[in-house]
Amino acid sequence: MSIKDTDHVALYYPYLMPTNSLWLKQPLFYWDHIQSILPDNAKERYQVLTPDLQFLEAEGIFSTIDPGYITYLLDLDAIVDDVRKVLKSSSFPLLKKGIFASLGISYEASYSHYTPI
Question: Which of 70, 61, 55, 58 is nearest to 12 (CA)?
């Protein structure tokens, strides 16, 4: 079973794993999945999953997220498309000038930038 975009996911935090079975059982009434932030190598090396967590993982209800893997949060294609739209927009030079002005940077037509110190 994989997590769908419409599923509700409980993220166990701030510890690596639920510390008691009561915490583990209560979210199952309200959430479709439970996840915990845990490096993949620590999960395998230290065998931190309890028998309950192993069962829930086998059923696709519990999973871990490696903190080094952030792309699951990002829709990279959408970000590239948004940046492409901005760069191709006829108002991009005005937008860029406004951003520089909001940062206190003088924008010159020669593409030199002066920053107040």
Answer: 61
